[in-house]
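Worked example

This section walks through a single chain of length 126. The input is the sequence exactly as stored; nothing has been trimmed or padded.
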Amino acid sequence: TVKATSPLGDPRVTYNLEEGQVPETNMPVRFYIKPNRADSSASILVAENLDYETTRFFTLRVRVQNVAAVPLASFTTVYVNVTDVNDNVPFFLSSTYEATVPEGAQIGTSVAQVSATDLDSGLHGM
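Given that input, the structure is written out below as tokens.
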């Protein structure tokens, strides 16, 4: 939620999210702004699903303008950090593994080492 006030004449203001040029600046549109008439603030809301693996943060530029014959505008920046969720399936680095072990190998003998990875971050990717 953002809030701006205008001490000049009419206290009403309007809000807009400025369009950016790259995903991190809301292009394509992933957020929108909704005015809250009750307290003259505005809420920034998610317009579509976000994906941490694609875009981890957004820098949104909000424009506020007063209602006047000659409107005046101001800007602020809102930083949005996306947190990762466990939405990726782990996968093996190879679809098959082959190993040879001699007959009579001792209990605990290493047979093969396989490896898998997960695109999620932190504990979700372990």
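What to look for: The two ends are 35 Å apart (CA to CA).
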